[in-house]
Amino acid sequence: MRGLTGSIATGKSTVAQMLKELGAEIIDADQISREVVQPGQTGWQQVANAFPEVINPDHTIDRQKLASIIFADKTARARLEAIIHPLVFDRIRAQGELLERQGKIVFADIPLLYETNCQEWLDEVWLVYVPEAIQLQRLMNRDHLSEAEALQRIRAQIPIEIKKQLADRVIDNSGSLWETKLQVDSLWHQIIE
Questions:
Q1: Is there a smaller number of Cβ atoms within 10 Å at the N or the C end of the chain?
Q2: In what order do the strands lie in the sheet with 2-5?
Q3: What is the per-residue pLDDT across 136-184, written as a single tens digit (0 to 9) for each?
């Protein structure tokens, strides 16, 4: 199983969609992380115990409130990650093994791949890269954040330049969508040959 990662606002979801269109199976860590904290799930109960202030009257989690807490407090972020990451990674590995046994090419789309040492159990890592200046502008525009808020979220992750050095394959997404697609197509053909 291969890992697909990037940093916030680098275009990882765009590349994941391109890979899916080529025939890859994409296991989305963000989607799984939402599933494991649905009311009634083990993760939900653990989040409710650790962060009771983020539980809405209908028992859903106020994700914006939770994000504002964890991006402002490293200890809170570590506490949330200790709850969610083991649940998510166990599910990714189980789904990935099943799909690979069926002969599928599988990518685990994991935003915090290096931050959580997932490279240790993945066959290789593909990184979606843009320089930090582009990342900052895209994040501010996409999420309507101030520069300070966007930088706070970017700095909560390993710098993109370090991830670039660690990755097995790099897709530069700072140009046009067409240029990104050409890179994805080329890498895809290398792995299916």
A1: C
A2: 25-28, 106-109, 2-5, 124-129, 169-172
A3: 999 999 999 999 999 988 988 899 999 999 999 999 999 999 999 999 9
- For residues 59-85, give the mean pLDDT: 93
HEC per residue, the chain? CEEEECCCCCCHHHHHHHHHHHCCEEEEHHHHHHHCCCCCCHHHHHHHHHCHHHECCCCCECHHHHHHHHHHCHHHHHHHHHHHHHHHHHHHHHHHHHHHHCCCCEEEECCCCCCCCHHHCCCEEEEEECCHHHHHHHHHHHHCCCHHHHHHHHHCCCCHHHHHHHCCEEEECCCCHHHHHHHHHHHHHHHHC
Handedness of CA 172, 123, 18, 90 (dihedral sign): negative
pTM: 0.87
Mean pLDDT, rounded, for 41-59: 95
Closest CA to 85 of 159, 29, 146: 29
Q: Look up residue 125 and give its two tokens.
A: 């890592």
